[in-house]
Amino acid sequence: MIATFTLMADFGCFGWCHHGPEDEANPALGSGIWDGSYWNEKYDVIDDDLRRDLCVWHSRFEKGSVWNHEAACQFDWASFHAEGVALCRRLKFAFGSDVRVRYEKPAEDPDCGDRDVMQIEVDGTVAPVPWDHELDKQRWAEFAEEIRRQLEAD
Question: Which of 13, 29, 65, 112 lies at 20 to 30 Å from 85 by C-alpha?
């Protein structure tokens, strides 16, 4: 099992953690562990400067009024993502090789694909994370079927 830390801006949270096998296909985003005011102390390797910079980066997203399509199209996504990847490199340096560090573009970015995930390697290079979209479809179909069964049972 390996911990995967993902930096992805969302409203109210920007740090996520998932524990799973190293060869796991389409790993879950995981639970929110950083929101700027709450920091899971179990993973407390982040210094105050990096915490502050993460919060400033996240506030750009929340203050950028990306709640609607027009505002999202005017938001400077290129610089936002570049800064996010730079922060991931700092996170990778802080965490070391024992964890995976990933950056995922938020769904609010109009140019974001289904899952646009990048992994930061130990040397700081950025590698795309392959995504099996057919596996996602299968999982969603199984989830929908389970909900249907539960509704019929009630």
Answer: 65
